[in-house]
User: Fold this.
Amino acid sequence: MKAELDEQTLLKGLANNDSKVVEALYQAHFNMIQHFVVNNNGSFDDARDVFQEAMMALYEKVQTNSLVLTCQIKTYLFSICKHLWLKRLQQMGKYSSPLSTQEETVSVEDDLGIFEKQEANYTMMNNALNSLGEPCKGLLEGYYIHKKGMQELAQEFGYTNADNAKNQKYKCLMRLKKIFFAQYNMGDK
Amino acid sequence: MEDIKLLETIDRYLAGEMSAEEHDLFETIRKNTPSIDQMVKEHEMFLLQMDQYAAKRNFAKLTEKTFQHLLAAGEWTLDNVAPSKVKIIQLWNKYKKVTAIAASVGGLIALTTSAFIMYFSPSLNGNQLLQLSKDIEVIKKNQQVQGHLLNEVKSKVPENATLLSGGSGFLIDPKGYIITNAHVLKGNGAIVINNMGQELHANIIYTDKNIDLALLKIEDKDFDAPNTIPFTIRKKMSDLGEEIFTLGYPRNDNDIVYGKGYLSAQKGYAGDSSSYQIQISANPGSSGAPLFNDKGELIGIISTREKLAVGVTFAIKSNKIIDLIASAKENEAPTDIKLKVTKVEHIAINRKVQINSLKPYIFSVRSFN
Assistant:
């Protein structure tokens, strides 16, 4: 009962971007993944990438799916990592025999499907932002990513007042939307 | 102009910033104008995408930071790092560099000895100070010697360019901004070389000869931009006797060299309040190298060495970087630089780990005409 409660607390903390929870999850589970990846044709860096992706997948799951997880966090993370790493090995043409593992796993295909779609959306937004150039990119990132106020942004980017910065922000936003939707609609057909 | 107004209105509508009357009015318009309704839906969807993007990006950053933090704290051993990828890249970069030099340096004249020829700064401090830049004398590029054999490995220094000076530099913004000494850049062009031996094009963005600092930006498709800078810039004055260390490229072979010492005076040469006096072994080529305290904060930039007293070195205080960026911005140089200034005091961490995490951010700088 106690353990279950702790898992719920962790998931809740994760949903709220609690850095202590992220740290606790890294401390508790990264070694397992590192061990698994390194023993299966991978490097420390590969393990880092795969684990980060699994953390992202878990994060997105708790964001969208309230806080329902049908298994332990450990099992979930491991299952995602195993899938991702398997896929990467196949892409590299390295995959030969089934991966050695004694860890319990659960089916994560559905979640990974959703995750991949979200990844694609992320990449689209990222590309759109990156093709903007400055000061548009910095201005929009400041507003939407770093949640800065117009006053602060006006200062940072050297606009005479918040209204000017806001006006500029909308001009940039129009450009961003145009680029984003050009990609988005292309991906739809 | 009209479009912007409309977008702003939709934005306010979706954010719930409208008054009740305005809201009702807008709802009516929306109901009667399909094109407006369409725009609202589109914008709503876009904002949702942006929201998810922002959350994801911020979370990715959080995981990256947590990982780096735990790594630096020695949570995981790197012993079982598979050497394959890293090593090969490193070897290739080294090899590339060596062959590039072999290809281009047919007419190279006495690099090693001339690097130590003393250069007396005429402007800054009279003849008292030896600037620590490597005055690489007349290195003529002669690509033809090696001919077509080594065509595929070209140095990024243009053909026929003359290397004029060199030193060290370090990244202060993941977008590729590098700080070095102004006197390290005697030419109009520059390249930087990372600790893996990879050469990268850099543009000289801004120099301030008075404070002897310069800003470069890496402009190279091969540049693998990091996510973040692993150190912060100290704004406050550092204490006398504080233990310090530096990493730079004092030699000609692009091997990064570590040196440690202590802060011996809070003012520099002849009472210069913009620099520190430090006790550290600094060699030519250390100019522009970063100076860290044991918490890993950037406290200065190694600059000049008193001619006679060996071991006495001066370092420009780190808050001058903030001044440099401010005046660069005033002079219409790019405004997208973000400095990471120390906000909370760090704790000292294992030096070897520290050095390993800092190494990729420190570059050898070469300037040519």
About this structure: The radius of gyration of chain B is 25 Å. The CA atoms of residues 13 and 22 of chain B lie 9 Å apart.
